[in-house]
Amino acid sequence: MEVEANSQTQIVSSDRRPDALGDFNLLSDEIVCSILNLLSPRDVACLACASSVMYILCNEEPLWMNLCLSKENRNLQYKGSWKRTTLHRLQVLNKYDDSCKKPLHFDGFNSLFLYKRFYRCYTRLDGFAFDQGNVERKTDLSPDEFLQQYDGQKPVLVPGLAETWMARKTWTPEQLLIKYGDTSFRISQRSANKVSMKLKDYVSYMQEQHDEDPLYIFEDKFGEVAPDLLKDYSVPHLFPDDYFDVLDNDQRPPFRWLIIGPERSGASWHVDPALTSAWNTLLCGRKRWALYPPGRVPLGVTVHVNDEDGDVDIETPSSLQWWLDFYPLLADEDKPIECTQLPGETIYVPTGWWHCVLNLETTIAVTQNYVNSKNFEFVCLDLAPGYQHKGVCRAGLLALEENAKVSMEEDNLISSELTRKKKKVKIDEHMDDLSFDRNGSDLEFSYDINFLKMFLDKNRDHYTSLWSTSNCIGQRELRDWLWKLWIGKPGLRDLIWKGACIALNTNKWYKCMEGLCSFHNISLPADEEKFPVGTGSNPVYLVGDNVVKIFVEDGLQACLHALGTELEFYGIMQTSESSLKNHVPNVLASGIVFFENGSYKIMPWDGKGVPDVITKHSTIDDVFPDTEYPFGIWSKKLFEYKKAGMPLEELVSLGGHSNIWPYIITKRCKGKIFAELRDVLPEEEVSDLASFLGKQLHHLHVLPVTPLNDLSYRHFEKKLEMGHDNGTIDNSIQNINLPAASKVFFTILNRKKKDVSSRLTKWGHPIPSTLIEKVNEYLPKDFVELHNMFKNEDGQFVVHNCCSWVHTDIMDDNIHLEQVKESWRPSYIYDFSNMSLGDPILDLIPIHLDIFRGDVQLLKKLLESYKLPFGKRRSSDDGCKVRRISYLTMCYCIIHEENILGAIFGMSKELRTANSWEEVEEAVWGDLNKYY
């Protein structure tokens, strides 16, 4: 627009934002940019043509960085800008190369949000050091002095711990590039996808980039991808213990990282995983550190804790953004503890401390997290089920809800009702004896294990509660870890017991065991026997010559059906002529244990009839009252139908009483489980094991199945309103002459299929997202299609794949071997609580994936001794995929209630790049087709 002012002509540009954005003008630039992040690269490119302002917003480098990293980039190559890098990956760079080189410029548009982002991309940090830091520097710190003054208490900077390391001289970008230039390292960035770059490509990126939050190498597998790096340093003598070292490297959580980053990169505010402690040694460059004590959430940071599974999510600005935008707002008394770390210095970060790191120049460092006697109980606490205690550990009393009352129980566990009053919490009179920090009648936050464990939810048991995906270790791995500590470190048993009581409720289950031992005249567990064994989903104890298993998984109704079906199966097996009974441990006793009036009481139960305690205390009514085993196989199949697709939290509460548990006592066998012998057994003995399993599967699958009579079937139909596909049998298969057992089986399969894509998405990595998108297309419309159907003489379709007893869970910890002279021979199969009726192929899946680890020769050996067909099928070359035995097996893997696909893709990294389910099917199960 031309205007005249003071006899001079000036050109004034109008604000082009309203006209260029239309209705989007109502939104801030930050919100519009956030929306653009949700689009595909192609959509963003199209939207850039809509208007001048959209062109500006759609060409921002941070946007294209997010678009690029949101895709699976296994080996990323930076092409000078993130837009060019993205277009190169889409193979359209040549077509749009000119537009990348010649950006357009527009006047009449200003954005403070974009300006700040631009400033962060190009700011220099030469004078950003905090040389007069208030983190103590201690030279020649002795282990005793560190233990007494710092360990688990406060940070400290220690120079000189790395002076003898080879890494002190050789870990520079130039020297590492010479030896490891073609080695790929994992990159840290905010996308959930795994991104790796070759070191030579990453060094090139560091030299070219101008990102506001630059990528940096944060590789926890550097010891595997570049093992020589482990020779260049050693754990400083101040940190000798790491209780996770009882686990093999492939079992333990990530614990050591190689860190390489350019200026402006760094780690945003966080508390280390599982409240572990850490040491970090800098080899090259300078780092600025900021730290807050536990419970002190930094300004600008938000902590979210999921009240269902305890998953912790922290929203935080980048480290550079925090220092530029939030740090200046802090009063002196609110500023963090700070320091600048110099090459050769090691900083110690205690358990639970918030910390943020900013690289002032290109840096190279090595860090390790660890568990020792000072933080062991805190780690166990953070891995315990529930959410309130996790919030309090990180956010202090700010994590508590308003206007809720705190009450203390006799076992020192707090109920789930918690409150905050001016950042303090009111206590009841019966808490007065407890030695907590207090101000008058108010309880101040204290990072003390006795204080923090008050906020555990006593109603959430480790074995039955949802497991947080943010935990650094899995539920089964936690049990394995604590068991190995208990056996391997007897001198620490007092400490281990305290931690296990927090994480596993070992005190509760041991008291339950005392009641069972007393009732059945079994000697009390010896010291080594006080701890539940194995990684299974139920507490199991080895006591003298007995194995005691308490059923808790998935709630009371699931447990009753597990034991009821197991006892029914044992009854059928014992009355048969099958030699399988010689390879199943004898049942010595079974019953129900329940907690009532302050003590544990026992009621024997052989699976027949409904126990009085269940009638009295439970609302379970899905039983078959007119059968010998009311919680037997057909009642279990009804329960399987109801729970198909049901969330775990609903399943646990399904007819569940939290103080009633079925149990079984079996004979303890001499020898070892296959899981303990896998790495030492010679090839010949493993081959013998495969033959043994084939024979036993044969005996299992030919056992007579409990018939479903007409009365029971009508009861079944009434309960389910059963049929195919939403309660009505599909018209296209009305003439199928399905046996009752098969009809039940197919109905359950079809129900499991309905939410398969959402379930696979929830499981996530390593299942490829591209395959999840194709899963419904791959699966059959109706599972009846998968079974060999043909017309009989009357013109009716019949199914030749009858249901049989299936174990469904024969894995390496359920196979027992005994030593005969100098060799190990398979003797027993354990744990028949997962017994069901179904396709015999279901037993092949865990055996092949877990015991055989995909070894085709072992599978062939099993099939040779099995000597039964898995149903009559046409050959796989007739062009019909539903006739392939491999296709049927793959479908079972996909809809399985356990994460079978995680095992498949975890076992074979090559399969993660498969473009179709057919590729996976052929690779894993293709050899099955040769058997028929």
UniProtKB/TrEMBL annotation:
Pfam families: Cupin_8
Cellular component GO terms, alphabetical: nucleus
SMART domains: JmjC
Keyword list, A-Z: Iron, Metal-binding, Nucleus, Oxidoreductase, Transferase
Localization, UniProt: Nucleus
Cofactor: Fe(2+)
InterPro entries: Cupin_8 (IPR041667), F-box-like_dom_sf (IPR036047), JmjC_dom (IPR003347), JMJD6_ArgDemeth/LysHydrox (IPR050910), Kinase-like_dom_sf (IPR011009)
Domain JmjC: 224-387
Organism domain of life: Eukaryota
Protein name in the entry: Putative transferase, transferring glycosyl group
